[in-house]
Design brief:
Strand order of the largest sheet: 3-2-1-4
Radius of gyration: 15 Å
Helix content: 40-55%
Mean pLDDT: 94
Low-confidence stretches: none
Number of helices: 6
Length: about 160
Amino acid sequence: MNLIAHKLGKSDKLDCLTCLRADGSTTETMMPRQGTLPHDLIHYVIEGGLGLRHGFTGMVARGANAGFVMAATHDPVGKDVDTEAIQVEAIVEALQTQLWSGQFKQDDFLEGVRTACLAHERSTFAFSDPDAGQRLFDAVLALNAEWMAVPYHGTLTLHFAF
């Protein structure tokens, strides 16, 4: 699946993500500008980097509507969502916090993941690589640099291997 991130105009508060599946079907979602890499593009890094398939990007790749997935995975209760989707969301949120702070702190990152999973009454994601958080943070920084270089009204296309 290709993720086509459209950077809209300079004064816009949102950008757009078009997901083009292998079968030619598409779904779109708006991405709020938050001063760093958009949340949905962090999903791309996390899910691809950890080989996960039940988060936002994976569900959309399998045919789900982006708006539906956003609502389901951001539901405060989230009881009808796969545990992996909640874990991915927790990792994205914890990594996004690190990105906003401008530095990676392993203990803060892991605590962010733990508390977000706990809030949804789900088990904490078990990282098999103790350096996964730093590796993901570095990948997010690299993609953020690419995104920041995209001019207004330009696009960034990423391929999510599903």
